[in-house]
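This week, look over our next protein:
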Amino acid sequence: MNSNKISAVINTYNAERYLPQVLDALKDFDEIVVCDMESTDNTLSISQSYGCHIVTFPKGNISICEPARNFAIQVATHEWVLVVDADEVVTPQLRDYLYEYISRSDAADALRLPRRNMFLGRYIHSSPDYQTRFFRKNKVDWPPIIHCRPIVDGITEDVPASNADLWLLHLDDAPLSDRYAKLNTYSNNEVPKRLTKNYGVASLLFRPLWFFIRCYFIQGGWRDGRRGILRALSSSVYQIMLLSKLMEHKLGKQK
């Protein structure tokens, strides 16, 4: 493996909407690996037009991309791997930063990248969310659980959020009806991971309020006006859904 080169890895399933923008931003990386989960749209033809290394991970009844993460990462031929979702754009400044970073003798084993998100037609002004997406290939294991973060065997550092040019650009801007449908699915998938935790009535009352305060005030959602209020409310709604389902499970066991 070449320690001075970077493989960009994307997991896809019917990802034609944003894929040309995503691949165009990755064209100057040393390799682009597309791990496709049996798409039925133009994902494969678009990937082929960019000269990507395409591999297939059988979808079966899988509804999330995480089970295919490790498979995709291991296909990469270079030591350093950048994982990008099929709706995320890497800026030229971030690309240059990553290449400069791997030339350093004190480079960590993984980097967390700041990401700017869209909400109701605009990029939001609140603090970016951080994603562990850049790492040495042999230092990471990605559990096959929805929204699970990779496990890094080594040191992880953050790309500075103070420079907005280094943020990943998240293009997805689903309407609220779709977002709430996803929250329902995500909370269903997260319940099994939380069953060992003890959430009581106080959590049900105060945890949603805390998530609203964190999103709206601490993370700067207030700068987005009504969008900021709606996004903070969505954060609270997710906690209500998750905690309600956990309590439903607990009460069901007490019957």
